[in-house]
From TrEMBL:
Annotated TM spans: none
Designated name of the protein: Nicotinate-nucleotide--dimethylbenzimidazole phosphoribosyltransferase
Keyword Cytoplasm: no
InterPro entries (alphabetical): Nict_dMeBzImd_PRibTrfase, Nict_dMeBzImd_PRibTrfase_bact, Nict_dMeBzImd_PRibTrfase_N, Nict_dMeBzImd_PRibTrfase_sf
A GO biological process held by the record: cobalamin biosynthetic process
CDD domains attached to this UniProt entry: DMB-PRT_CobT
Physiological role: Catalyzes the synthesis of alpha-ribazole-5'-phosphate from nicotinate mononucleotide (NAMN) and 5,6-dimethylbenzimidazole (DMB).
Active site positions: E294 (proton acceptor)
Reactions listed under catalytic activity: 5,6-dimethylbenzimidazole + nicotinate beta-D-ribonucleotide = alpha-ribazole 5'-phosphate + nicotinate + H(+)
Any GO molecular function: nicotinate-nucleotide-dimethylbenzimidazole phosphoribosyltransferase activity
Enzyme class: transferase
NCBIfam families named in the record: cobT_DBIPRT, PRK00105.1
Amino acid sequence: MTKPPGSLGVLEDVAAQLAGIAGTCPPPLPEPATVAVFAGDHGVHAQGVTPWPQEVTAQMVANFLAGGAVVNAFAAGLGARVVVVDVGVAATLEATPALLDRKVRRGTADLAVGPAMTLDEACRAVESGIEVATALAADGSGCLVTGDMGIANTTASAALVCAFTGATPASATGRGTGIDDPTLARKVEVVSRAVARVPSRPTTPAAALAVLAEVGGLEHAGLAGFVLGAAAARVPVLLDGAIAGSAALVAAVLCPTAMEYALAGHTSVEPGHAVALEALGLRPLLGLDLRLGEGTGALLALPLVQSAARALRDVATFDSAGVTEKN
Ligand SMILES: O=C(O)c1ccc[n+]([C@@H]2O[C@H](COP(=O)([O-])O)[C@@H](O)[C@H]2O)c1
Ligand SMILES: Cc1cc2nc[nH]c2cc1C
């Protein structure tokens, strides 16, 4: 390629990863992209860990389906499609073509006091994620993008990060949508209580699923499956923020090689996200202090991933362009 070796930096690693994923060089362009926004509610909302009412989850899902959220604005500019996967929204949602009804239950139970869900429920949500990724890949999506919506889901995310990495609740728990100091203290306490009930750093699939069921969320389960399904279909999966990062920790134990198909779009300001990415060995492409979720940070990174593939496909060689090599 007509550029000094290494001059595209991290994009060279991305390009090599895409070629490895496809098993061909140059790899196909990672397009069109589809964002799957996994949505669920959380019983831990009852602990006062977020200032937002639970019904905002369903209201934002309606907003996604109407095309009015930030994820829709970003996706439209990139020619990406947005689908919403209801794995556990408490309210009944109005059916539309972009809504995939995979509701396992109407929100999790309160993870502060007991298991968030049963093992069977966690497995069904994981399987929904696998199935959605498989269907989107079969339908021609060249890049699968994670999204999430669930008021209070940063509490479950922090608990998963602590359980899977051994990080302390104080270091992995953040302000989510924006909470004051007393609420943050309560949230750290809730995460501590949840993490105390599960084994630290599970290494077997059975143990990982048990931890997911105990302290996770339905959208985390769906997202873990989504990563596995993308990998099985040999399609790159671009991860968004703290929720996707914590879900990827589960996927990495279920199938370590699946992570070779994952790229981290950005690092969120939620502190557990950087902890998760470090544990996964994933380098985030962007750092923009985002904390929105929905798939927004991953979508912002999508042009970088696509440019990496374009460089491999379209750039002339020194020979073909008649450019003299270095001494
Ligand atoms: O993506 C992130 O890193 C991220 C960080 C903070 C908040 N969020 C979003 O905000 C919601 C959860 O925030 P909270 O404070 O209710 O736990 C949920 O809908 C997430 O999509 C997302
Ligand atoms: C308004 C709003 C939009 C969101 N998008 C993802 N999480 C969200 C949380 C809130 C509160």
